[in-house]
Amino acid sequence: MEFFDVMENRSSIRKYTDEPLTKEEIRCIAEAGLKAPTATNKQEIHISVIHKDDPVQAKIQKDLNPEASVNFYYDAPVTFYLSAMDEFGWSDIDAGIAVENMHLAAKALGLGSVILGCMKKVVNGKKKEEYDKLLCIPEGYSYRIAIAVGHADIEKVPHIIDYDRDVTIK
Ligand SMILES: Cc1cc2nc3c(=O)[nH]c(=O)nc-3n(C[C@H](O)[C@H](O)[C@H](O)COP(=O)(O)O)c2cc1C
Fold this sequence. Notes:
Layout: H1 3-9, H2 23-34, E1 46-51, H3 55-64, E2 78-85, H4 91-108, E3 112-116, H5 120-123, H6 128-134, E4 141-150, H7 163-166
Antiparallel strand pairs: 1-2, 2-4, 3-4
This protein binds flavin mononucleotide.
């Protein structure tokens, strides 16, 4: 897909088929994250690739909301967890830029995805050390943001933008 087609047609997908991702798709999406710019070229983003049947997914769900009718990763075959250095002031922004690259890369590959922020209080909370191990987060790093990716099982119209409200040209 051309870049502007990707951007104009992307939306957050919250329903997936059971079809797994290929190794090439996983690599391409992770590389898109690593190719993102980082402040002072720190390149401090780490990506953990977690498949849906990994027990850590169910554990997070249990700690987040065991009663929920839909799990936090919407049963997507793969969730990518992005972590970044603790002692670097731009890490959250770097992770945000990287995850958007991954969201657009997934769309360009014909896949669907949704950025996930809702688990932060669980993963970085009281059980942080345990989750750091389970999610293979490097020493001195913390989880920042995640993205669930799979084959979309739903069509979703992109959100409407309001250029006049949201852009000021001085
Ligand atoms: C930082 C961030 C965190 C988000 N966290 C979640 C989340 O935890 N769960 C979820 O379903 N969607 C999450 N989203 C997706 C937004 O809800 C979505 O982008 C928004 O509703 C607009 O929809 P669209 O992406 O289809 O245009 C997140 C998006 C961002 C940018």
